[in-house]
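anyone seen this seq b4? input:
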Amino acid sequence: MDIYHITEPTAPKVPIIISSPHSGTYFPQEIASRLTPQMAQTPDDADWFIDRLYDFAPQMGITLIKANYCRWVIDLNRDPESKPLYTDGRVITGLVPLTNFNGDPLYVTGEPDASEIAERVHKYYLPYHEKIEELIEQTVSQFGVALLFDAHSIRRVVPGIRPEPFPQLILGDNDGTSASAEIINTAWQVLQNSGYEAEHNHPFKGGHITRYFGKPKKNVHALQLEMAKTNYMDATETKYDDANATAMRGVLADMFTQLIKTLQ
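predicted toks r here
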C-alpha cells in the first residue's frame, strides 16, 4: 500500500493543494492484529469519504493528496514531538494514538513503544509531509503563491472533546496566522453565507499541518476546514449520502472558485 495517493488536476492547474490526511482507513496487518477488532474494522475517528467529497477539485485545477493509512497508525496532523494542539481539557490523541477521541483504548496488546513510534514516523509520517513540501515548492515556483487546504470531518457529537454538537463547518487558520487576511476572508464569507452553521477558529483552529506549513509572509497560505460528517453522510454517520454530499460540494466549489480569484 502506498503512503499517499495524488490526484493531479484535469483542468489547467491553479495554486491550491488539498490535503486529506485522515481519510485513510488501512492498517498494516502487524498493527491491525493488536487492535480491538471492531476498532480495526471500522476506525471511527477516520475522516470517512472526505476524499470522495472533494474528488471534484481536480476538475477545477486543484491538486489533491490523500493519505492511505488510518490516523491510528500515525496521525499526520499532529506535531512530530506529540506536543498537544490544545490545552483546554479535551481528549487529545497523540502522534500515535492509544485511544480514540472518547478515551477508549485501541490496543488489546502490544502498545507501540518509543522505538516503534520512531519507525512509524520514518515510514509513514515523513513521506507525507515531505511530499506536501514538494508540492508547495512546485506551486510557488509556478505561480508565486500556494494555498494548502487541509480537509477534515468529525462526528457531530464527540463527548470526549465537548458535550454539545459541533458546528457544521469550522474554518481554522491558527487565529489568523496561517494565511493572509484576504484569503481567510474569502473563504469565511462563503462559509458564512452557505446556509450551514459556521464557526471560525472555534473549537478547532487548525492542526499541525495548517500551523506548520502556513507561512503567509513567504506566500504560502494554509487553511483547515473541519466539518460535521452529517454534512455529507447519512444520519448514522456511517454511509456516504449523495444528496447531502451534493449540497456540500456546491458550497465547497463556490469557496474554491472565490479562492482561485483571490489568489490570482
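The CA atoms of residues 12 and 61 lie 5 Å apart. The chain has one domain: 4-263. kinda curious what u guys think
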